[in-house]
Known about the structure:
The structure is a single chain. This protein is mostly helical. The chain has one domain (2-97). Helices cover 39% and strands 8% of the residues. The protein has helices at residues 2-13, 19-26, 52-62, 88-97, and strands at residues 68-71, 74-77. Strands 1-2 form a two-stranded antiparallel sheet. A hairpin with a 2-residue loop joins strand 1 and strand 2 (74-77). Helix 3 (52-62) packs across helix 4. 10% of the residues are buried.
Amino acid sequence: MVEKKKESTAIMREKLPTLQELEEMANVDVRTVDPADVTDIDDVEIDMELPKAERVKSYVCQMKNPYIMKTNGVIVKMCFTKGSGRTLTDCLNSLLEFGDYPPAE
């Protein structure tokens, strides 16, 4: 339990990108990204015992750009419909809420 608390505290100390930085990341043209600079989603580890806010922060901190990831060697960009009212945080909360990340093999 002490180890979990240390991990949780370490995650909360990580600096999240500013809103401006997130906007810049969202506007990156995926066709110009160097594949070596893209985080493979299989390398991201989420501790489902952490509170939801800490899981989201952990995801964002592990990603170089939370909008762009690599999966099975393919670069994928997440986009959200403008005007939907859903932010990246909202979508990540929905994803991480189910407790089955990473998917069972």
